[in-house]
Amino acid sequence: MLFVYCNLAYTAYDNKKHRRLRQLFWQSTTKILVPASTMETEPTITFPVIRGLQAHREYYVAMWSLRMLRQISIFDEDELPPELRAQRTLNKARIPEISDYILENPDDYVFSALTVSIDSDVHFEPLSGQDKLGLLRVPMDARFIINDGQHRRAAIIEALDQRPELGHETIAVVFFLDIGLERCQQMFADLNRHAVRPSRSLGLLYDHRNDKARLAKLVIMKSEVFRDIVDMEKSSLARRSRKLFTLSAFHNACADLIEGMATGDLGEDANLARTYWEAVAEHFPAWRQVLEGRLPASEVREGYIHSHGIALQALGKAGNTLLREHPQDWRKHLNGLKKIDWSRSNAQLWEGRAMIGGKVSKVTTNVVLTTNVIKKALALSLDSEQQRVEAALGRKSER
To answer: How far is CA 192 from CA 195, 197, 199, in A?
Structure first.
């Protein structure tokens, strides 16, 4: 015999006047005894589910403990060629990151439901008086194939090795009946067809754990200058956008600005960053003109390097050195920004440094080279890495 422990709690609505169910609470924390003869000849796994209908096909939703994800055998397709698999192979490099997310946020991690196909006949037994709530009996030798969520499952199992007490927590699992490889492959394609990763800016906007993201957002909210020229949602600006910068670009710039200088006091660090950025903004009148609606943001972006993320990040890197070397009189050194010809038409300066083939480039090397221009204008020394990158550009120009 097989004992399976099941937990089920649900609430239905009832009203005598309208002949509906009113607040019926049924909870079972019992041992369900499944005889070896269940489904006549085979031992089964039995668990509570809600039955649904989608595209004329039945499916079932269950609440499984995390521990059950380890106990249930999942069919391993890794050794099969792509055309014989139901989905992509497991990328083991992704597992530690997801597992760490669980372990570092045990009180507020969140996962969406897993989607699983069952390659077997199953039997649904509705509860008395119900047609959607009941028990699903699945043969012990049935194959479970994950259509969506294999990395979440693997990460959960890895997290349980370090925190076994998480095993009693639960995750929703949606079960479909597998009617062949072609159907499984189509399910995988359909489940991922409309999946769109949110922009980095939107991810930062909604991330309340990331201290650097919180800092950047606080600076923007408190700054009269940046509040209305930073797009908080998009990571790339449309040609006609009224904004000059994105939150993701400003986040990178703020992170570089306070690198190694953060006090741990969010308010204090934000005040320092806001003071610096507003002082920088005074040397770029075009920013203020965009803010006041006197100049189109698109015109400024098309004409000048200083209104692109690469310049903002370079100003953050240079600012970090400036604040360290001149903590008392850093403001006056910013006057050197006026010495720089920020025009994109100044190809002699910017081509190969901030632009490649006339287009602004944000790769790491270009950020360093743009930082070098700013540091020289502010009379700041270059570190060894910046000197190396600058020398490499010089050798390339001599060819």
So the answer is: 5, 11, 17
Give the tens place of pLDDT for each residue, 100-130.
999 999 999 999 999 988 888 899 999 999 9
Contact (Cβ atoms closer than 8 angstroms) between residue 115 and residue 153: no
Q: Is the pTM of this model over 0.85?
A: no
Nearest one of 335, 344, 392 to 368, comparing CA atoms: 392
Residues 6+ apart with CB under 8 A from 230: 220, 243, 244, 245, 246, 247, 250
Q: Name the burial class of residue 310, with classes exposed (0-12), middle (13-18) and buried (19+) by CB atoms within 10 angstroms of its CB.
A: buried
Residue 372's alpha-carbon distances to 224, 252, 308, 350, 353, in angstroms, are 29, 17, 16, 12, 10
| Mean model confidence pLDDT for the chain | 85
List the Cα angle 393/304/216 in 5-degree steps: 90
Distance CA 287, CA 291 (A): 6
**Among the listed residues 235, 240, 228, 264, the one whose alpha carbon sits nearest the alpha carbon of residue 252:** 235
8 A C-beta contact, residue 286 and residue 225: no
Instruction: Describe the chain by its helix, strand, coil percentages, rounded to 5.
Output: 45, 25, 30
Read off the tokens for 244.
């000059």
Name the β-bridge partners of 126.
Answer: 134
What is the CA 38 to chain-centroid distance, rounded?
Answer: 45
State how far the Cα of 369 lies from the Cα of 390, in Å rounded to an integer.
Answer: 6
Instruction: Specify which residues 115 forms β-bridges with.
Output: 148, 174
Residue 157 CB coordination number (10 Å): 15
Give pLDDT, residue 107: 92
Local confidence band at 184 (pLDDT 50, 70, 90 cut-offs): confident
Rounded Cα gap, residues 276 and 270, in angstroms: 10
Please check whether residue 272 is in contact with residue 223, taking contact to mean a CB–CB distance below 8 angstroms.
no
pLDDT computed for residue 277 by the predictor: 98
